[in-house]
Write a structure and sequence with these properties.
Residues 3-219 form the ABC transporter domain. The chain is α/β, with parallel strands linked by helices. It has 7 helices and 10 strands. It has helices spanning 41-49, 91-97, 102-108, 125-138, 155-168, 181-187, 207-210, and strands spanning 2-12, 15-26, 29-34, 56-61, 64-66, 76-79, 143-147, 173-177, 190-195, 198-202. The chain has a 6-stranded mixed β-sheet, sandwiched between helices. A 4-stranded antiparallel β-sheet has the order 2-1-4-5, covered by helices on one side. The longest helix is centred in the middle third of the chain and has 14 residues, at 125-138. The protein binds adenosine-5'-triphosphate. The site of adenosine-5'-triphosphate has 10 residues, from helix 1.
Length: 219
């Protein structure tokens, strides 16, 4: 299955944010989006999901236009930049709600055993993010949109999560953006840079320096 978003024009008031953006996400691949602060990455994910209405856009699934918001299709899961799960919900309830096995989660992350009867707000920011990323990855969605998944996550958990991401990608199209660009460049099969309102498909990492996303000599 493949998902395309095309001709995205977004303005807030008189400010142009995105102009003629194109991005393709394919099943079995991780599509990375990089871009400076305020370049419109979160907005693009919201538009893809269907929760933000731009001035113009076209979404296609397997080359066929889709006019209804994608979230109504049941095919897409969106991990927002900020919290996904309410703080007053018990973590085990969240796993029940998503129909994801708590025991299987503990096999990966045994340190969470102590939170078996805790509310989400009792977890640290990074721990909460680990649980949210895991729930998103294990969801049956065909398109997974992840907005800055790695913020606040410590290196050991990051290693485990990237292994799970690699093992889950075969049946999904995963789109992710993060300022921890090395994680994105290592994971991504396809990479886009959003800058000055435009999207560019990156073929060689050196282009990230040429387009002034990274300082010369960073790579
Ligand atoms: N609801 C809104 N109303 C007005 N302007 C907005 C709104 N949402 C976002 N913006 C503006 O749109 C631009 C793009 O924001 P967006 O959050 O999509 O960027 P981003 O690339 O995800 O940024 P960051 O990397 O800092 O999270 C910013 O200039 C932001 O101030």
């Amino acid at each position: 299955m493949n998902f395309e978003i095309d001709n995205v024009d977004l303005k807030f008031g008189s400010k142009d944010i995105l102009s003629g953006i194109y991005l393709k996400a394919e099943e079995g691949k991780i599509t990375g989006i990089l871009g400076p602060n305020g370049s419109g990455k979160s907005s693009l994910l919201k538009i893809f999901f269907g929760s933000l209405q731009p001035q113009n856009k076209l979404i296609r699934i397997n080359s066929k236009p889709v006019l209804k918001p994608l979230y109504t299709s049941g095919l897409v899961k969106y991990l927002p930049q900020h919290s996904l799960i309410p703080g007053n919900l018990k973590i085990k309830k969240a796993f029940d709600f998503y129909k994801i096995g708590w025991k299987e989660f503990l096999d990966h992350f045994p340190k969470f055993e102590k939170y078996a009867s805790a509310n989400m707000h009792q977890l640290s920011g990074g721990e909460k993010r680990v649980a949210e990323i895991y729930l998103s990855l294990k969801s049956p969605a065909k398109l997974l949109l992840m907005d800055e998944p790695f913020s606040h996550v410590a290196p050991l958990y990051l290693e485990q999560l990237t292994a799970i991401i690699r093992s889950e990608k075969s049946g999904k199209a995963i789109v992710m953006t993060d300022h921890m660009y090395r994680h994105i460049t290592e994971l991504a099969d396809d990479l886009y840079l959003i800058k000055n309102g435009c999207s560019r498909k990156i073929q060689h990492l050196k282009e990230l320096e040429e387009y002034h996303y990274l300082n010369p000599g960073t790579l």
